[in-house]
Amino acid sequence: MAEFTMELNDEQREVRDWLHGFAADVIRPAAAEWDEREETPWPVIQEAAKLGIYSLDFYAQQYFDPTGLGIPMAMEELFWGDAGIALSIVGTGLAAVGVLANGTEEQIGTWIPQMYGDVNDVKVAAFCSSEPDAGSDVASMRTRAVYDEAKDEWILNGTKTWATNGGIANVHVVVAVVDPELGSKGHASFIVPPNTPGLSQGQKFKKHGIRASHTAEVVLEDARVPGSCLLGGKEKLDERLARARERAKAGGERVKNAAMATFEASRPAVGAMAVGTARAAYEVALDYAKTREQFGRPIIDNQGVAFQLADMRTSIDAARLLVWRASWMAISGKQFTAAEGSMSKLFASETAKKVTAQAVQILGGNGYTREYPVERMHRDAAIYTIFEGTSEIQRLVIARTLSGMSIR
Ligand SMILES: Cc1cc2nc3c(=O)[nH]c(=O)nc-3n(C[C@H](O)[C@H](O)[C@H](O)COP(=O)(O)OP(=O)(O)OC[C@H]3O[C@@H](n4cnc5c(N)ncnc54)[C@H](O)[C@@H]3O)c2cc1C
């Protein structure tokens, strides 16, 4: 197990600088255009694929970095470039993790390459869990998967919403109910292969921020997938359901804890995205404050402005430390006894919202226009307190973990 360190090693520094170059030279210059177009930036994804940044290899290398800092460092740099474009690049990785975490070796080998496509024909993937009536309350999910034993096929019916890359993905990972009696313990994940009849895109959302990232409904109408598309396989599912039924009788704590541990481990990655956006806005504001003159001197000469910048940087560094701590805990298999993963996501996402608003204020009228990037960063930052569990849900998780009580 690697010791916790705040110092990147030589190899990590090299990767960080390489990613920063890509974010500065390719992502940032394209950000305003794709934000206005509200479309997936395929040419930028293709460029990332050519360099090896858009690939399972790259993602897996960062994911398995023994210090735990690979993913947060990569997320921070890419999202520093632009949040919407970066999400278009890493969205597939989030779906791939769903397969890596629950799939068999064969499923991983078959489907993950199809999620990325190849350099000349890049593809994306989507992870579809949320539904119109099941956002924070995942247990109220209604999309149903029914097994047709005669054909060894699963039949999926329901409507998923808010799916990043939903409908344009080559491969969709869909979470569905296989046993309605068991609540969230009766859910299973399925691969929906390319061109499956019965899967279609519903409405595409016009959003406040991260507009270069495609977000849409995914409608499943008698979508049939082969038995082999059940992640983990039928035998494992049957065993898991049997155990869940037993535990439901006995109280159900252990299954709940296993699911919580998975979330604790994935939330710091979203915190790192937020740190990237916050840092980007802070840097623009710092530069602006040093050069913009009013009353015959740079505006940073006023404590009212300088102290804001001091607070912004302090919060960003504190957020990064929480993210790195939780990422290190996840890779080291440490127990999240104080919901440290949720803490990092909560603090970093609230920091991004606050810091980007302060940046808009420091740029004055210019901050309010699309001539300057902080307006976009401020819109983008609002997503971090919503997806992967809202701030309220993070507080709920932290409070429950600290108290051991089922606070509502
Ligand atoms: C741009 C975008 C991309 C997304 N990408 C994906 C994706 O790829 N795949 C996917 O499956 N989902 C995705 N989501 C969905 C996202 O995870 C949900 O929006 C989020 O979980 C919140 O659910 P909701 O929108 O239904 O809000 P609700 O759950 O309806 O919450 C509304 C408000 O009520 C509060 N609230 C709810 N319950 C409680 C409670 N018990 N205590 C206190 N407050 C509470 C919430 O905090 C929130 O402020 C995405 C969402 C967006 C906007």
From TrEMBL:
PROSITE patterns reported for this sequence: ACYL_COA_DH_2 (PS00073)
Keywords: FAD, Flavoprotein, Oxidoreductase
Stored Pfam families: Acyl-CoA_dh_1, Acyl-CoA_dh_M, Acyl-CoA_dh_N
Cofactor(s) required, per the database record: FAD
Transmembrane stretches, start-end: none
Domain of life: Bacteria
GO terms for MF: acyl-CoA dehydrogenase activity; flavin adenine dinucleotide binding
Record-stated family: Belongs to the acyl-CoA dehydrogenase family.
Name the record gives this protein: Acyl-CoA dehydrogenase
Species for this entry: Streptomyces lincolnensis
